[in-house]
Each structure stands twice: as structure tokens, then as C-alpha cells.
Design brief:
Elements lengths: L8 E4 L4 E3 L2 E3 L2 E4 L2 E3 L2 E3 L2 E4 L4 E3 L2 E3 L1 E4 L2 E3 L2 E9 L4 E3 L2 E8 L4 E3 L2 E3 L12
């Protein structure tokens, strides 16, 4: 049980395969495979051996493994040099390290952009 003030971390080991959705408030670290959506209020960390196939919604994420699916991060998404990402990204801040593979579209900033008015 976590000590008051510390974040709880759920860890999915290298040899684990999850078929289904993950929903929660804690941070999640994935070294195995998840075939399903992930919807958490904490940080998602995907290790080099981690594989996700599904939709992701999280506060922030650090990706070193591979994802097939869309991701929405309220704060920050980091694609490390070993990451492979196929899908669309919606986040406030995006960091892509050299060597990372990203195939898809990205929408930065979660607030709609204001269009300037034309001068008459």
C-alpha cells in the first residue's frame, strides 16, 4: 500500500499480456503487451519491450516501446529514440528524440486556436 503523498505505480511485467482495458488513477509502467485501451489519470511509461495496441488517455507519457493507436496526453508526451508510434497524437507538449519513429498526425495544445480577424 502506498505511503500517503506517494504515487501508486502499477507495473506490467515483460512476460505479461493483457487483453482488455486499463482504467485507473495511478501511474502505469508497461514492459509487456497491452491489447486494449488505457485511460489513467497518472503518467504512462512504456519500456523498450512494451507494446500497446489501443487508444490511450493519460496525464503524461514517456514512450520507449511501440504503440499502434491514438494517444491523448493532457500535459506532455515524450517519444524516446527507441520508440515506434503509429497513430494520432493530441497533447499540450511533445518531445520527439532523434531516432524515434512517428507515423500519424499531431495536434498540439488542447484549446482551440483563435483565428485572427481580417482587417476591413
Amino acid at each position: 500500500m502506498p505511503v500517503k503523498g506517494e504515487n501508486e505505480i502499477t507495473q506490467i511485467g515483460n512476460s505479461v499480456l493483457i487483453k482488455g482495458d486499463i482504467i485507473g488513477k495511478s501511474d502505469v509502467r508497461v514492459a509487456g503487451t497491452v491489447n486494449g485501451s488505457i485511460n489513467i489519470e497518472g503518467e504512462l511509461i512504456i519500456e523498450r519491450t512494451g507494446r500497446i495496441e489501443g487508444e490511450i488517455k493519460t496525464l503524461s507519457s514517456v514512450i520507449a516501446g511501440s504503440i499502434k493507436g491514438n494517444i491523448e496526453c493532457k500535459e506532455k508526451l515524450v517519444l524516446e529514440s527507441s520508440s515506434q508510434f503509429v497513430g494520432n497524437i493530441k497533447t499540450k507538449q511533445l518531445i520527439i528524440q532523434e531516432g524515434a519513429i512517428f507515423q500519424g498526425n499531431c495536434q498540439m495544445g488542447l484549446a482551440p486556436a483563435v483565428q485572427p480577424k481580417e482587417k476591413v
